[in-house]
Design a protein that fits this description.
Oligomer: single chain
Strand content: 25-35%
CATH class: Alpha Beta
Structural class: alpha+beta
CATH superfamily: Nucleoside Triphosphate Pyrophosphohydrolase
Shape: globular
Distance between the termini: 37 Å
Largest sheet: 4 strands, mixed
Order of helices and strands: EEEEHEEEH
Strand order of the largest sheet: 4-1-6-5
CATH architecture: Alpha-Beta Complex
Number of strands: 7
């Protein structure tokens, strides 16, 4: 089974809330809420992927020094296995804008359980609650 590496980021605002983005229509798992990020391209480090993807998806500039690894998810889908490391980022430049997603929300970590998320994202929630509190 093919392993797909996807880097994800939990952007945390000054109030301790986490950004989630709603997948647009026409994409797999459309309508579900996810952590921003994307597929790691050949020859690219996951941190480079996040810097690129956060700029493309949200219009923000993130420096590598502001990315801190937190945890990862390993999830088997029908036709591939997803390995998804999650970084925390508390500092970025520019306003967060939905460029590719249907919508964005800032939520307390404990409220992430109340929204529909892809199965691979769900195991990332408890470490966020441990770090940020309810």
């Amino acid at each position: 089974m093919k392993i797909v590496l996807v880097a994800a980021c939990a952007l945390v605002d000054v109030d301790g809330r986490v950004l989630v983005a709603q997948r647009p229509e026409g994409k797999a798992l459309a309508g579900l809420w996810e952590f921003p990020g994307g597929k790691v391209e050949p020859g690219e480090r996951p941190e480079e992927t996040l810097i690129r993807e956060l700029h493309e998806e949200l219009g923000i500039t993130v420096k590598e020094a502001c990315l801190a690894p937190l945890t990862f998810a390993s999830h088997g889908y029908a036709d591939f296995h997803l390995l998804m490391p999650l970084w925390i980022c508390r500092r970025w430049e520019g306003p967060v804008t939905a460029r590719e997603h249907k919508a964005l929300k800032w939520l307390r970590a404990s409220k992430l359980r109340d929204i529909p998320m892809p199965p691979a994202d769900e195991p990332l929630i408890p470490p966020l609650i441990d770090l940020l509190g309810p």
